[in-house]
Amino acid sequence: MSEKVFVSAQEVADRAGVSRSAVSRTFTPGASVSAQTRRRVLEAAEALGYHVNELARGLMRNESGIVCLIVSDVATPYRSALLREVTLLLQNSGKVAMLINTDRSDGSVDHALRQAIRYRADASIILSGMPDKSIVQLCLRNGQRLVLINRDDEQPGPLRINLDDDEAGGRVATAFVRAGCRTLAFANSEVGTPSLMARERGFVAAAAALGMEVSVERHGWTGYEAGKVLAQRMLTRTERPDAVFCATDLLACGFMDAARHQFSISVPGQLCIAGFDDIEQAAWSSYDLTTFAQPISAIAARAVEWLSHPQPENSEQSIRLHAELVWRGSIRGG
């Protein structure tokens, strides 16, 4: 295998018959260069296969353009949709996304992040509440700008983007009561991220204000199979719930399938169900799930905008966005 050879700017300059600085100006946005010189440089670069070394150029300005995306549950519909939106915006702003998967709990995550820091990553976006808080500290110690999404880390420096999860719990409790439901339950995972727990607390508190108690059950990871297990546990009780708020849509889909196929319970006739995230599957006719839409585009836009433009020290460091209730057929009267 032949050794890969990188074409230098000087080689482009020699072929185009211009100075090395003319090549640099040609590939620098906004720099002054004549149309004739630009044409000659671009033709020479095309013929030689030259590409600007953006990493080296950035390091001369003390920035690399690299943004780490620190994320768990990459394969879930909500997380993949958020990743898609964030990466597109980063690319459009001239930055490069470096993905660090935190699903594993061993030292590989810390190693991957340290490797990214050695590449002089400018910033990190933590896209879920699961990664350990030590990762946040590592990013800050190495001078990175940091965006935290759906986390409760209270410390100066990062931009925090959260949703009104607790208020969502209140809205769905009211919807259940209006649908005539009287035995409420909340289905959650055991992951315990800030957003999941806020939905649980908000729902329990709202029900209490309405004079009702909520049965809470937690199991496993936040996925479809956990939803099926939660249904098996909750629907075999003597006092079976007639309304269940699931912490995520994936939990709700699993719960609904188990309720229908294992227990022959009709939704919403005998059981009302709500979820959270508004993933694609929630709108499928087989689920027709009432849920809350995560404002994915707004989350991504606010994160990338904050990273792309220096903010004054007294600028807003905490953003709270609204999750819109999407009415479908899994709650009576929706």
Brief overview:
The chain has 334 residues and is of the alpha/beta class. It has 12 helices and 12 strands. The chain folds into 3 domains: 44 residues, no CATH class; 124 residues, 3-Layer(aba) Sandwich (Rossmann fold); 131 residues, 3-Layer(aba) Sandwich (Rossmann fold).
Instruction: Give helix % range.
Output: 40-55%
- Judging from the principal axes of the Cα atoms, what is the shape? elongated
Please tally the β strands and state the result. Answer: 12
Which ranges are low-confidence, i.e. pLDDT below 50, for 5 or more consecutive residues? none
Report mean pLDDT, rounded to a whole number: 86
Second rung of CATH, namely the architecture of the largest domain: 3-Layer(aba) Sandwich
The biggest sheet amounts to: 6 strands, parallel
Count of discrete domains: 3
Order of helices and strands: HHHHEHEHEHEEHEHEHEHEEHEE
Number of helices: 12
Content of β-strand: 15-25%
Computed structural class: alpha/beta
Distance from N terminus to C terminus (CA atoms, Å) equals 64 Å
Strand order of the largest sheet: 2-1-3-4-5-11
From the alpha-carbon coordinates, what is the Rg to the nearest angstrom? 25 Å
The name CATH uses for the topology of the largest domain is: Rossmann fold
Identify the CATH class of the largest domain.
Alpha Beta
Question: Keywords, please?
Answer:
alpha/beta, Rossmann fold, four-stranded parallel sheet, 12 strands, elongated
